[in-house]
Specification:
By secondary structure, the chain is an alpha+beta fold. The protein contains 6 helices and 5 strands. A 5-stranded antiparallel β-sheet has the order 4-3-2-1-5, with helices on both faces. The longest helix has 16 residues, at 15-30.
Length: 134
Amino acid sequence: MSENEEYKRIDTSKQNMSHLLDTIDQARSKGRRWSIGNKSIVFYVLLNGACVVRVKPLTLDVNGRLSYVQIVTNFRSKNRIAAADTLGKLAEITGRVTDGSEVKVAARCKKILKLPLWLIIVHIVLFSWRFSDD
């Protein structure tokens, strides 16, 4: 099954799923790469608050593919620290093996997300850049 066929199998008739997929597409195509991650954890952000955290596990998914785990959040949300908590427990939640760096990255992310919103935006502007799709 090709990747496009897999994508078509996702039920986009539900508004939440459609919005989620649009957010991922927008962050990946028009977002900025925020430098708080590392080689296996990449943050894509938009200044409207949308943030996609893409983690590359070391193990295959249940279908035998090397697929990324993505966390979609909004850094402008009051619940923004929950994404860092999720990242820190990713291996436990998903049952996938990672390189272990997510705990360190989650701690750094949590520290930044505890700052006032205006400082988070300044941090993103200073420590992110436009990128070509990788």
